[in-house]
Design brief:
336 residues, mainly alpha, three-stranded mixed beta sheet, disordered C terminus, binds zinc ion, TPR_rpt, Tetratricopeptide repeat protein, TPR repeat, TPR-like_helical_dom_sf
Amino acid sequence: MKGNQINPRFIQMLTGRKKEDVKENPSIVDLKSDHTKVIVENRESLRPESLNSFKLKCGHCNQNGIYEVGKVAINVMDKKKPTHEDFQLNGYFRCKHCNAAGDWELPTDLMMLGITAMITPEKMADRCFVGKNAMFDGSSHRFATDGEEHLLDLLEQNPKDAFLWNRLGNLFQTCGRPELAAASFEKSISYQPDQLESQYSLGFLFEDVGEFEKAADHYEKVLIAAESYKEFDAPKLRDMLASTLNLLFCIHLKTDETIPFLSEYVRDRISEVVQFKFTRVLDWNPVLDPADYTTFYPLAEAFMGEQSKQIPKSEQVNLPSSGSGKKKKRKKRRKR
Ligand SMILES: [Zn+2]
């Protein structure tokens, strides 16, 4: 079988199988992921749209192939001309013939793309930029497959680290491999169901293939997990929740309200603190506008629970104090 372009080591880590039990060129079935299955069945094409396709030669088997290399970063400091080592290719690809990765001979036209981007960066901005790709831990890699190996090294030390599985999922997602991303995020939440970023990304992947019920289910889990999630600072957490609420609201609208916005499932699972704030926001009934995600801030802050207090005071949503609005109205009426 040709061209699955899946790392056998990824399969090993994902499924806990021994090296000798995994094929050198594994297929999607070997991922044993229900989430991947849904993505694969519903997506017209698993390959990213062509942005930068080049003919590359594999240093392992010496065979040529056309590969989508993704966005190109030229990691040069003060040099005038980039060398092969300065090229970082953001797309995830492995040799179609031998499934090896990271040992590529770069063609002249790709080198020329880099030089053009250095001379006229504005013309090339979509395809190539001067700078470098860095991962969450500051490490920087020439190929997405190198970044993957780095994360698999880290996972070998901590195989049940939901955060690392999330980072691996992010790598696959940004490098144009949603089916591998789905399997990684699924693994991440199997170890830590309240890994909010993995729940969000799964929601996003399912929404992308029109699986709205599944998407809403994962977005709701983001809301439930928010109160205890500590990986973000408070303003970033609020933005993420506002975006999640906005996406859920849009799913509610585009499914003719068959998928509820903030279902009983969510309401039954939030803490008393969140419940109290949530009820106050609902009583206040702010206008929600999908074109302006900040209109979801009051609800987002409610789901943050006590964490919302860490947002600078001047930026926090001011809810009308409970009951005061009604009293004022009554007073006015009496005067009349
Ligand atoms: Zn090869």
